[in-house]
Backbone:
């Protein structure tokens, strides 16, 4: 082993120990969704004729192709079963790789842990090598588990392992992209933004290639390779080398950049701040707003783009006529026309995505406390209540703002082609706010109890996603499904708005926040 990589294996073990809960939850959810989709296909489509008709219906809709990718072999049960898994949920695989690699490279440099460990007998490239190795191991494990559960769900053995390899390849691509992004900026947030932007651009590139005459664009994206692999038909095994080549190229460039920068620095130089701070930064709320403003700006653009895109493609769902597809959409968006079910499903998905922003803000509050920044703020004339209120306000108000932006963008994208008013479309998304508040209230309570417990909030969100997406497919009891606050929000515009569940959810959120503030005032900081 090169002297620059000395200590890589112990760092990999440390990363595995630190992320054992987070990675386990991610793997459980992704693998569970795979199994549920594989096992449910035979129940939804009893005959081959029904499966072929459903596949042709998906291919005939540009909106569905943009979301899920095309089904290249309409006679393949495996391709139909993994329609959403092949492209859409593969996006989550790359995001998992982003979280893992960023945490053990740029985040550790930013909080000083890399410098602390650098004082021991480890090589200069050990941190990068460990992060890439751990991310690769997680990707390969996920691919293997996905293959095994697909076989257990009744899908062909060879095709299932080819599909698992595509997910592993997508994870490897995410590892390489994030490894390079983390060398470009000294800010962990900026690095995550760069990696997420590249991953999002690749997803869009694939969507454009699959829905236009420029089909070659699909070959420029790992998400397009997932489809072109043809896992469950005439498998193109050579496509797997594309993932390895892309990931290897990114990692190689990341290594070169890493070797030519200082620890804690990035290629993109940070701009110097003003000589005198703004008077608004004297207040904890003003400081929290300033810290999270760039992130909120990027999230605002992303939610606006998401709403516009889904609103624009919604008319393509008007001509769909498939009972099986109707059943799939009803699980997420309720019963109604295909377009209304799509809009309701989009509103539900947006609520889950926006909740991630709030959890990130609350998690940052936990990091501030562990790194000593909260104590510095409390050393001024600032109360504990004010400190926690600042984090809570940015998380809750920011998430609500993003719901509003997504709703307005969705309404603009739909335009005048909907039977619903623009106001109803906006309320369809904004009406998800009470459920988001409950989860953020739980996250705040975790922060108030122990700053190290904030990652558990991701487990709460993942549990809600699991109950909403695969709970019914797994045959879970109704009372278990109702444990998710998102299940109590009316699926507008399919269903009318209801005040009762909104008020109850808001009251639950207020109760959680009240308990959080009491707990935060009573415990020791740090």
Residues:
């Amino acid at each position: 082993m090169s002297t620059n990589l000395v200590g890589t294996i112990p760092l990999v073990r440390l990363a595995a120990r630190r992320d054992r809960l987070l990675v386990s939850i991610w793997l459980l959810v992704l693998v569970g969704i795979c199994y549920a989709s594989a096992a449910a296909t035979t129940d939804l489509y009893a005959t081959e004729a029904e499966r072929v008709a459903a596949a042709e219906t998906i291919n005939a809709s540009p909106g569905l192709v943009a979301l899920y990718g095309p089904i290249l072999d309409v006679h393949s049960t495996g391709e139909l079963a993994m329609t959403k898994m092949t492209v859409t949920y593969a996006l989550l695989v790359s995001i998992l790789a982003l979280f893992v690699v960023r945490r053990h490279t740029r985040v550790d440099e930013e909080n000083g842990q890399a410098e602390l460990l650098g004082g021991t007998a480890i090589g200069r490239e050990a941190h990068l090598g460990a992060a890439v190795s751990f991310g690769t191991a997680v990707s390969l494990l996920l691919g293997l588990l996905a293959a095994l559960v697909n076989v257990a769900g009744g899908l062909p053995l060879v095709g299932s392992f080819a599909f698992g390899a595509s997910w592993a390849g997508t994870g490897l691509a995410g590892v390489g992209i994030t490894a390079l992004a983390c060398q470009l900026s000294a800010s962990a947030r900026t690095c995550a933004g760069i990696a997420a932007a590249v991953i999002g651009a690749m997803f869009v590139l694939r969507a454009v290639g699959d829905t236009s005459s420029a089909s070659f664009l699909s070959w420029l994206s790992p998400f397009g390779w997932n489809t072109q692999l043809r896992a469950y038909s005439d498998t193109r095994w050579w496509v797997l080398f594309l993932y390895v080549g892309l990931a290897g190229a990114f990692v190689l460039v990341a290594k070169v950049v890493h070797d030519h920068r200082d620890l804690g620095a990035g290629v993109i130089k940070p701009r110097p701040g003003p000589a005198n701070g703004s008077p608004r930064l004297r207040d904890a709320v003003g400081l929290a707003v300033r810290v999270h403003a760039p992130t909120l700006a990027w999230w605002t653009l992303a939610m606006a783009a998401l709403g516009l895109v889904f609103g624009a493609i919604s008319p393509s769902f008007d001509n769909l006529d498939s009972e099986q597809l109707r059943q799939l959409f009803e699980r997420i968006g309720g019963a109604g026309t295909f377009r209304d079910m799509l809009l309701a499903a989009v509103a539900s998905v947006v609520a889950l995505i926006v909740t991630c922003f709030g959890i990130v803000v609350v998690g940052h509050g936990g990091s501030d406390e562990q790194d000593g920044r909260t104590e510095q703020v409390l050393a001024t004339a600032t109360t504990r209540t004010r400190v926690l209120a600042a984090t809570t306000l940015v998380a809750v108000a920011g998430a609500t703002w993003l719901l509003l932006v997504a709703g307005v963008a969705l309404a603009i994208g739909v335009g005048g082609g909907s039977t619903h008013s623009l106001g109803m479309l906006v309320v369809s998304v904004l009406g998800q706010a009470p459920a988001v508040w409950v989860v953020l209230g739980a996250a705040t309570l975790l922060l108030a109890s122990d700053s190290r417990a904030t990652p558990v909030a991701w487990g709460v969100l993942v549990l809600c996603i699991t109950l909403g997406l695969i709970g019914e497919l797994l045959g879970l009891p109704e009372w278990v499904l109702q444990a998710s606050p998102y299940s109590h929000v009316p699926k507008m515009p399919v269903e009318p708005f209801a005040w009762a569940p909104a008020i109850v959810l808001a009251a639950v959120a207020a109760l959680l926040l009240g308990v959080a503030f009491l707990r935060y005032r009573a415990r020791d900081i740090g």
